Amino acid sequence: MVKIAIDAMGGDFGPDPIVKGCIAALKRRSFEPILVGNKSEILSLLPKRYKDKILIIDTNDVISMSDAATDAVKRKDSTIYKAVELVRNGEADGIVSAGHSGATMTLATLRLGRLWGISRPALVTLMPTKTGRRSVLLDVGANVDSKPEHLAEFAIMGGCYAEDVLKIKNPSIGLLANGEESSKGNEVTKAAYKLLDGYPGFKGNVEGGDIFNGSCDVITCDGFIGNLVLKTSEGVASTISQLIKDYIRKSPIAITGALLMRKVFKLLKKEIDYAEIGGAPLIGIKGCAIVSHGKSNSKAIENAIYQAINYVDTGVNEHIIARVQELKQKES
Amino acid sequence: MVKIAIDAMGGDFGPDPIVKGCIAALKRRSFEPILVGNKSEILSLLPKRYKDKILIIDTNDVISMSDAATDAVKRKDSTIYKAVELVRNGEADGIVSAGHSGATMTLATLRLGRLWGISRPALVTLMPTKTGRRSVLLDVGANVDSKPEHLAEFAIMGGCYAEDVLKIKNPSIGLLANGEESSKGNEVTKAAYKLLDGYPGFKGNVEGGDIFNGSCDVITCDGFIGNLVLKTSEGVASTISQLIKDYIRKSPIAITGALLMRKVFKLLKKEIDYAEIGGAPLIGIKGCAIVSHGKSNSKAIENAIYQAINYVDTGVNEHIIARVQELKQKES
Fold first, then answer.
1. Domains plus CATH for chain A?
2. Quick one: DSSP state of residue B78?
3. ipTM score of complex
4. Which of A53, A134, A259, B287 is most buried, judging by how many CB atoms fall within 10 Å of its CB?
5. Where are the beta strands (DSSP E) in B72-129?
6. In this complex, do B257 and A257 lie within 8 Å of one another by their Cβ atoms?
7. Residue A66: is its pLDDT beyond 90?
8. What does each C-alpha distance from B306 to A52, B4, B28, B56, B86 come to in angstroms?
9. Any chain A CB within 8 A of the CB of B185?
10. A320 shares contact with chain B (CB less than 8 Å)
């Protein structure tokens, strides 16, 4: 059975939503959770019938959001460090943490190591599209100043993720740029284009709008840019919802209208709510690490656990190693 | 009186919305329009009483969207070339074109020249925010692979634009990055941070979401990234509106609700509709060029003309020269 190590303390709201998310996941999927954190706090949140079913690794150090990610390697008693070590030692198959994302990425990369042929792991996110199917965007923040070969590796990893985890056959892969023509791009994307040209599924440059129209399954970009795209998208969605609320408040007729449209807004919220996805897998490491949002509620943690189980179950890592090998052979 | 040369033929819908936009602008502001394009076509669209009031420069060549921007310099009879020459020769103060944006930027830069101290002109756009006030984002596509000094120049030009054209006193200026801390950023933004540190109004790094929350008046970034941010924003807004429409269609109650909320959606559309802004000024050239969307309707052209008039009237170019001089003195 898949074993998932869960950082019970790292989220902004303490262990409560994390323990709840873990219990909710246990009700629907069979896996072995290992909660890492303050044992007495965790036990106080666990219903009686779960106290024997869940392994708890007792530790009190928690890396806080204000700590430097670079110090994480020294914090050997921290929840994230201990959870990563469980994977390193083969006692767990994957980790889920809503704690310090930089620390999680650093520790997972350094302690677990990179997959063969991968220079830099990447953070993956799933973006909502008009078609209802989600598009895979990576890297959304594990790296800045990516080189062309990194973008090519991200593309390959994203393709394997789409195929194995999202079950998309022959996923199309795009390179995020400032225009569709092959002449468009900056120095890095133009060179990445050449590396990816001819790779199965590669359809060339795609633009910012293509992330959401469902025309492309996988989109590769530098992490600095991916972070901006993600934060911009959240900003636009939040601004639109804020403006709608402001306008509604000013008109009784609109309030009535909004009440009748409640279900529509609920569906929309569900579509753009990150809690429905769970977290962001760090792809390219030996093992599995799901980086969850600090503000994760129990639903987000539950879904992050499913992501971890699916990631491990589908063997996406082996797939990546095989595919990267093909690309390297083509290059040489 | 301010003279504006208008490319009458370049837009996707031919001269009709452009001539209409020009007439609408004439009804509200006093300026001298010069329409550049096929004279008989333009005349056929002009109401009788305007036939003597509007100067028409007759030419038949139109640079089409599929032409290479680099060929624009050879197309001396094209509408864009002729309109730019009017500014170069002092016969007009600014140009408005909904034609080939690359050609407009190339010709305006090469034929009019750059302002003293400016290495690269930048394309400016105004983004809607939660506060109702718009934020100035630049560069949104005139350059890729910007160097730190370019980002600093964009910041200064954006600040002058906010002060003079948008009448924002002491505008705050942010550097678009993947986190607020000064340690965040890629190589280019980190170096730009150092150049801008201490510049009046500079508040450090801002994130993607800050473009829309109104916390920052001016945001500087590389044009490759600005283009992605802009296209991503349009994509999110269009996806949300599409999803709302899809959901509404499935429920009679929601349809009734949507009817009652018509005014809300209208206000929202107005807020995010680029036609309300007009076009994107190319800032940093000797003169004034407003780059309008190819799909501009008459409202967008009308607003682009106001932008051009305001740009010329406020003397923002002189302001930029003075400010850049201050920065260069600080650097040396």
1. 1-118+284-314 (3.40.718.10), 119-276 (3.40.718.10)
2. B
3. 0.92
4. B287
5. 94-97, 122-127
6. yes
7. no
8. 72, 10, 9, 19, 19
9. yes
10. no
